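$ ./design --mode recover --in tokens.txt
reading tokens...
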């Protein structure tokens, strides 16, 4: 049988998913989802006391249109860490400032370089670690 159409694998939790109710959301460019990068992400999150079940990983394809803000419950506090994506790619209308925690309603947002770039650069690692300590200080 010939393949007429390949259905791409879903990279996002389904709309309205309870995954979006978790207190930590991590967004990455889907191209960054190689095993080495995901292992590095697991180490980062473990360093702030989180295991894979404690956060939802949202993988965004480079050509994907997605509004993270519309998926998030607005009445609960959440930490959102974004690696290698511009806020506009997630439907967020905020100025892009790397390695600075920003507050938007009940959300605390941290933008960082891609996982691969962060892993390769000691300065990026230090800046990320400094802000993660602030974000997860409680």
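writing sequence...
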């Amino acid at each position: 049988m010939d393949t007429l159409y390949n259905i791409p694998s879903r990279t996002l939790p389904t709309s309205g998913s309870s995954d979006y109710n978790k207190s930590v959301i991590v967004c990455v460019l889907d191209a960054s989802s190689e095993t080495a990068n995901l292992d590095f992400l697991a180490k980062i999150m473990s360093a702030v006391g989180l295991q894979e079940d404690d956060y939802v990983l949202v993988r965004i394809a480079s050509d994907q249109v997605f509004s993270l803000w519309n998926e998030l419950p607005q009445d609960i506090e959440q930490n959102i860490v974004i690696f290698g994506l511009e806020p506009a790619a997630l439907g967020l209308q905020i100025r892009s400032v790397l390695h600075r925690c920003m507050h938007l309603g009940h959300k605390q947002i941290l933008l960082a370089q891609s996982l691969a770039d962060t892993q390769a650069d000691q300065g990026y690692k230090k800046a990320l670690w400094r802000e993660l300590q602030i974000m997860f200080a409680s």
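exit 0
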